């Protein structure tokens, strides 16, 4: 066996070992949870809706939502918060705590451990719908999509 053959064999062994380590990453990553392992989703959906409406109105810091939402949802909400703040500045308005009430929560479970919900928000001038998709990972709910209509 030449030195070149020994290096080639060692590289092949290292590649197979690293491929094995990548599969171990799945074991330590986020683990999906079954619906029976998760708490009741309705209180979370109500709280999350309340926080999103307040964040968009400028009355709540978006950082407070970070633990409940995925990174993509956080980025999208961040863009909306910035746009809402710009619109308020253009109109000369200051951020105020909005007056609203949370209405009905409509739940749908397309797959075990995934909830798609619509939460109604009633304000003086209008009513809004907040669509939220939460997924169970590591025995807790986390929002993977939020849309304020």
Please tell me about this protein's structure.
The protein is globular and about 50 Å long. By secondary structure, it is α+β, with helices and mostly antiparallel strands. Strand 1 and strand 2 form a beta hairpin. It starts with a helix and ends with a strand. It has 3 helices and 4 strands. Helices cover 43% and strands 28% of the residues.
Task: Based on the model shown, name its key terms.
149 residues; alpha+beta; four-stranded antiparallel beta sheet; 3 helices; 4 strands
> Which spans of ≥5 residues are poorly predicted at pLDDT below 50?
9-13
Overall 3D form: globular
Q: β content, as a range? A: 25-35%
Helix vs. strand class: alpha+beta
Concise summary:
With 149 residues, the protein is an alpha+beta fold. The chain has helices spanning 3-28, 41-57, 71-91, and strands at 100-111, 114-123, 127-137, 140-148.
Helix and strand topology:
Layout: H1 3-28, H2 41-57, H3 71-91, E1 100-111, E2 114-123, E3 127-137, E4 140-148
Antiparallel strand pairs: 1-2, 2-3, 3-4
